[in-house]
Fold this sequence. Notes:
The chain has 152 residues and is mainly alpha-helical. It has two domains: 2-109; 117-152, no CATH class. 56% of the residues lie in helices and 11% in strands. The chain is built from five helices and three strands. The protein has helices at residues 2-40, 43-48, 53-66, 68-87, 104-109; strands at residues 119-122, 129-133, 138-144. A three-stranded antiparallel β-sheet has the order 1-2-3, with no helix packed on it. A hairpin with a 4-residue loop joins strand 2 (129-133) and strand 3 (138-144). Helix 1 runs antiparallel to helix 3 (53-66), helix 1 packs across helix 4 (68-87) and helix 3 runs antiparallel to helix 4 (68-87). It is elongated and about 75 Å long. The termini are far apart. Residues 92-111 have low confidence and may be disordered.
Amino acid sequence: xxxxxxxxxxxxxxxxxxxxxxxxxxxxxxxxxxxxxxxxxxxxxxxxxxxxxxxxxxxxxxxxxxxxxxxxxxxxxxxxxxxxxxxxxxxxxxxxxxxxxxxxxxxxxxxxxxxxxxxxxxxxxxxxxxxxxxxxxxxxxxxxxxxxxxxx
Length: 152
């Protein structure tokens, strides 16, 4: 009986070590996912959702370094509550004409200089028409891809 306990202890210890290491990787992955998602979203999306990009970047990244449990908790709150609100505003990256990319520096600093200029772009809701982009949001003005007003 004593021999069995002595040989099973290292195995139990290894299993626990692997379990906590996997838990640690999941926690770090959650914080990284939340931070990268917040960095990639334009400031206008946060404003439209009634929040602040800088605030959520600080809330997700800083505690993860100083107080890991708090950082993971805030990352989960961001992903579960704030991210869906931002995505529902229609101002996230995918809603911009031609999937226009914003540089990482502009996204972090909250600059909107990467947003495309006003003009006619393919309508994300109806590819057979074009829609007027005001420079900050889609308008209600639409026309056919041939430049004529769409047939109603």
